[in-house]
Specification:
The chain has 7 helices and 6 strands. With 248 residues, the protein is an alpha+beta fold.
Length: 248
Amino acid sequence: MGRILGIFIAGLLALLPIALTITIAVWVAQLIHAYAGPDSIIGSLVVVLGLNLSSSDTAAYFIGFLIILICIFGLGLLVESRMRPWIQDGVDWLMMRIPIVSNVYDLSKRFVAIVDRGGEDNFKSMRPVWCFFGGEGGAAVLALMPSNEPVVVGDHSYVAVLVPSAPVPFGGALIYVPSKWIRPAEGGVERLMSVYVSMGVTPPAGLPAGGASSESLSSPTATSEKASAPRKSKVQRRRPPPIGEDAS
């Protein structure tokens, strides 16, 4: 009986991701239909936009929707061109001068900056590092280092590391730690993300015994070049005996 129950649970767990994916897709489709369908307020505006080209409401809806997609694509072309700073500054100047709306716009802009993976200021530009709190032998935390430029506080040098949160690595804590606590990590940003998303089930790449110096953050090939350098032979040649003397 226990084996039958175990097989049933295994099949249920295998089916659960598929069922959740279908449920979420249906929910999103219903949400879009409720707020942007032909019978919604936004849908009625889309129909009005396409009525100039067709007398049918259904055809007008799809024509208006196509016009909106073309406009969004055109805006994307403008944003990707050299006009992006002008457009961004103009929109920011306008939205930040509207009371209450400016707060919502600022929050939305920060959220978009987090999820936008195509920009320069994202996780791709960061470097995965090991942070040993307390120095070598202390608690090891896999973190992201935005920049290797140190920040001097008093007589000590610190670097900023971002410790993601599991299982959603888009949040976390920004901590300034001593530079000597940092060691480069292997595997890249994608490996670090998979470690946090899996809540530690996916193991990170380990660090060899003795670790790596903090200098390797800027020159990771220095150690390999040093190890591959040829060694000088220590064999000494025996001097020949002087002429007229017998070799012992």
